[in-house]
């Protein structure tokens, strides 16, 4: 039978997503396909454990996690899993302790930071103490032996590791380290072959030896043969994960789209043949293909690295030294919380030499210009990439007065002078309109003493830290790692959503809103008014969708009658005062012109900030003019939002 060959890394990423979305049968089929060639692979034991937990089979999960722990005891996720699956209280406690100790963003963060920074002399004392306290723990034997090796004490490292090599079964990181230490070439190759049988991607070796290169050569990434039926199933369930750069959405040929601006009292959009607009749309299409053509989820062997960026001086100038210190402390705690989701967060205070010194020889900058921030961010990315940590995401902490927006030229022919955007912070050598990284921002609330910023940081800390799972004996366990496999928007099932649209745009709005599968009907204005919306505000909604008018500098959003002109008087549909409490972790997406215009604004006069103040986890919108269709087919912002809702419903993280 003909088989389709896929790189094993992409199959593992696909399994990761399938588990997240709850496609258990397909996940198991993919696991079995990989197991046919690599039956002893660590990752497969982990996946089987997660699958069993998802199916409420804790005993089966515990067996899988114990097997994974024997094959790679240095992986904190195996201990997290065992802590959640085991029915033995003593085993639960010990596993949770081991997970916390190995967590690179946990209580012993400095040890792992020193190792990643290539400073074993700073980590050796603590690791020796760990080894003395727990002499039989395989993970601590491995790490202590590796520190000895890095310090040049190879004989001592071999003596430390030797008892572990006499045990059966032997783990992948122990075998990789033995290969690095062995003086006999043939024996070293045997150790390496045995390690690759357990870990063919050498993920545990990368974790162990970073920031140094691997001390041996490993073969190219293996491939896995899939039946055409399984390959087709995987591509349908997880487009873009099994094969990189595969677009999620492929539109059939359609007639030209009639496009209008989504702002009140606005002229029409420039003609589509305008060369500047065409060039901008081409870049947007490239970015869309990249963003929606691959999964942002990361396999457990490939840690995500995120930069959290702010400016101490700018915070102090806006809020005072005490509040500035509180914000930076909250940012640091947020970084630690991300560590529970296998995200390595680096807190970057661009005007603080000590903060930058942990990364490398990077000069701090006192000025608060976008160019100065970009310079520091690029230097940090370069240093981390050199150390083997590719940066995947960038989070800016503060509003425009703290971390300024870039002002890029407006490529269209409307009245917007420029476009405030964070995209250039995440772009490289390509266009500044198409970032290579995920870029997000925690805005502030203006002259509120830093209150909104601190509230948002505390909200995401709580969101990432506290994930409760029913234990096998009926108790409640806190399992932070399970957040990675939570289905925040039901993993493809219907989403409890709520949508509001101008009546004139009912057809495209219903098409976009239909991506959620919500049972609540789309609300149209007219006839809806702020009073009727306030009475119907959904406290349990998980996602809010708005396709309405907005105006530059104005606090309100507006509807439009079916036959009403967009340049005439428009009915108010929503004001900041009408925003009610929102559900925890609610995500808000708006197509309104200036829907995300927050420069010089506060929650009192910006709906986006008001939603964040009232508990929203994220807001997605436009800082300037947005364009969309008045009828089918969809166009402009409608397509971007449709794909955003499509992927959120499938369980993709909003960041």
Structure overview:
The chain has 655 residues and is α/β, with parallel strands linked by helices. The protein has three domains: 4-223, Alpha Horseshoe (Serine Threonine Protein Phosphatase 5, Tetratricopeptide repeat); 259-294 and 488-649, Rossmann fold; 304-465, Rossmann fold (3-Layer(aba) Sandwich). It is 43% helix and 13% strand. It contains 24 helices and 20 strands. The protein has a five-stranded parallel β-sheet with strand order 13-12-14-18-19, sandwiched between helices. Strands 5-4-6-9 form a four-stranded parallel β-sheet, sandwiched between helices. Strands 15-16-17 form a three-stranded antiparallel β-sheet, with no helix packed on it. Mean pLDDT is 83; it is low at 240-257, 266-274, 285-302 and 467-491.
What is this structure, in a nutshell?
With 655 residues, this protein is of the alpha/beta class. Strand 18 (587-590), helix 23 (607-613) and strand 19 (618-620) form a beta-alpha-beta unit.
CATH architecture designation of the largest domain: Alpha Horseshoe
CATH topology of the largest domain: Serine Threonine Protein Phosphatase 5, Tetratricopeptide repeat
The portion of residues assigned to helices is 40-55%
Reading off the top of the CATH hierarchy, the class of the largest domain is best stated as Mainly Alpha
Q: Describe the biggest sheet?
A: 5 strands, parallel
Rg calculated over all Cα atoms: 26 Å
- What class do helices, strands and sheet pairing give? alpha/beta
- Termini distance? 41 Å
- Number of spatially distinct domains: 3
Physical arrangement of strands within the biggest beta sheet: 13-12-14-18-19
Number of helices: 24
Mean pLDDT: 83
Would you identify the regions where 5 or more consecutive residues have pLDDT less than 50?
240-257, 266-274, 285-302, 467-491
Strand content: 5-15%
The outline comes out as globular
Give me the count of strands. 20
